[in-house]
């Protein structure tokens, strides 16, 4: 041990206090300890830098250090080597230039709304948007004088009619939460650029995870202005933490978001940042595995749906040819997330009860929100909950989130649960 220390570093606390009455007391010695570990340590893990307080060598350094451009450290809230590292790796994932971290995916959405919208502005949300984003619009944003319009994600023409000079922010989601319609992202973007050039276009890219398609290079010169991710889902991968991110390429847009981020006090915990950093290298493998299992299960359920008297009316999954927006998915995507939704037959007696019975009869799928973790999950929804402006779905819905279990076990589980629900 001793020979790894630099020659000028004592291995133990200095000065015997009995011999030197001016020596600091034990508490002070423990706090102001002189030992410095040798520099140059490297391992696969990114060191977990924890801080509220960050030290400066001088008052001048304190006054001149800047956090906004990430050239230095001022306070834990404004970044540490660990959080800057996660931001840089997330930027790589999508080919973005700037990334900010937020305490949850929803906090990232809320930050974008708060940073970019003001009284008199109009916000556009897809009708199948992640529901808490709509709740924020209907409460806080409304109170702050912001008008929200919702659009059918599969009707680019009707979307165009909602755009105008007050349109300031447009959210896109691909595929849509729960019902998984895949919109014509290029068509929506081209329409928005033409009819509302002043609007910022934000994509909730949680489903694509930066892997299914390139949000900043959608082809035909089209790009989202920023993306938001719930890192909670695939990037973290454990179902054990909450975090969100905002990525963009434009320095001026990033500066606006970063300024609001700093003022709003959106910090993330270093241990959670470490957990996401640990999850990132396996993200493409997990995403591909969950994609493959979801497709196999979707194909199996579609075959079940084709049988007379089946409880399942339709399988919603963007890679299925009869799923809404399939052609848009096929034109843009090289992968799909591990999510599928079963529409139950509305005519079945006790339709909603059967969907609930199905969910409760599942053994490998646990009942719970979120996705992207190792355990498969199931949640029943009423169609009107998901598409308030008018649901194209008639039967009750069950969203299945695929974990990392063996595909044959999940298929057998769905079959036994369907048989129980049909009784
Ligand atoms: C989960 C989710 C969010 C919110 O993420 P949290 O970290 O749970 O707040 C946002 N958008 C989509 C599409 C999501 O699935």
TrEMBL record:
<feature type="modified residue" description="N6-(pyridoxal phosphate)lysine">
    <location>
        <position position="233"/>
    </location>
</feature>
<dbReference type="Pfam" id="PF01053">
    <property type="entry name" value="Cys_Met_Meta_PP"/>
</dbReference>
<dbReference type="GO" id="GO:0030170">
    <property type="term" value="F:pyridoxal phosphate binding"/>
</dbReference>
<feature type="region of interest" description="Disordered">
    <location>
        <begin position="1"/>
        <end position="30"/>
    </location>
</feature>
<comment type="similarity">
    <text>Belongs to the trans-sulfuration enzymes family.</text>
</comment>
<dbReference type="InterPro" id="IPR015421">
    <property type="entry name" value="PyrdxlP-dep_Trfase_major"/>
</dbReference>
<protein>
    <submittedName>
        <fullName>PLP-dependent transferase</fullName>
    </submittedName>
</protein>
<dbReference type="InterPro" id="IPR015424">
    <property type="entry name" value="PyrdxlP-dep_Trfase"/>
</dbReference>
<keyword id="KW-0663">Pyridoxal phosphate</keyword>
<dbReference type="GO" id="GO:0047804">
    <property type="term" value="F:cysteine-S-conjugate beta-lyase activity"/>
</dbReference>
<feature type="compositionally biased region" description="Low complexity">
    <location>
        <begin position="10"/>
        <end position="27"/>
    </location>
</feature>
<dbReference type="InterPro" id="IPR000277">
    <property type="entry name" value="Cys/Met-Metab_PyrdxlP-dep_enz"/>
</dbReference>
<dbReference type="InterPro" id="IPR006233">
    <property type="entry name" value="Cys_b_lyase_bac"/>
</dbReference>
<dbReference type="GO" id="GO:0019346">
    <property type="term" value="P:transsulfuration"/>
</dbReference>
<dbReference type="GO" id="GO:0019450">
    <property type="term" value="P:L-cysteine catabolic process to pyruvate"/>
</dbReference>
<dbReference type="InterPro" id="IPR015422">
    <property type="entry name" value="PyrdxlP-dep_Trfase_small"/>
</dbReference>
<keyword id="KW-0808">Transferase</keyword>
<dbReference type="GO" id="GO:0016740">
    <property type="term" value="F:transferase activity"/>
</dbReference>
<keyword id="KW-0456">Lyase</keyword>
